[in-house]
Amino acid sequence: MKTAILAGGKGTRLAEETSVRPKPMVEIGGKPILWHIMNIYSHYGFNDFAVALGYKGEYIKRYFVEYGSLSGNLTVDLENSEPVRRHEQDHAPWKIDLIETGDETLTGGRVKRLKPYLGGSTFMLTWGDGVSDIDINNLIAFHKSHGKLATITAVRPQARYGHMRFDGEQVIAFEEKPQTAEGWINGAFFVLEPEVFDYIEGDMVMFEHAPLENLARDGQLMAYRHTGFWAAMDTLRDKYNLQKIWDSGDRPWAVWEQ
Question: Can you tell me whether residue 256 is helix, strand or coil?
């Protein structure tokens, strides 16, 4: 099963970083967040990716060309006809289709442009800026169990501010940015059947709007409720928070380290 990742947006709310590189290449712990996302899937044995490029897509192409050839230890012998010798394969066994989907194309259009690269069967989809400790195998099993066209992962994100707990008017505790108790939001990490492409009319369609709304109207959208860790990197504040979590050593989304 292939995994599609949308990596073409301009990331305007993270302009301090995205003026020079696309948002999926903003680094957490010295690695692009796109690398973190791919490692989540790879941990569960899914190593075949189709990445939708747009804004500064050449940056992502260059990274993966160099990632495969420059990772690990090398010996450079300039007298040899093949001057570079790699000692070992020090990287994940990924196959990555890097597909140009246009600078201005919206999310639904990017998904549809990936159709020729997704094999005509069930596929996964996520955004290039969100990480989670979601169990991909359980997600897929849930999708297969209900027989509908689409599964969306529903999450409760961390609250933006800390909460106070009261006993009457007395403050009895502070809770530092707990998970919100109200409502569920779109956490991406989709599993989709190829018929979903029929719900996307063209480039200027937001996948989050008409396609998902119409799938829900037709009774074809099911929610996998994930109560564990989930975070998206929309702003510089989000980036700093993820870096702080990484530096603490408690890295809930880094399932490949556990």
Answer: helix
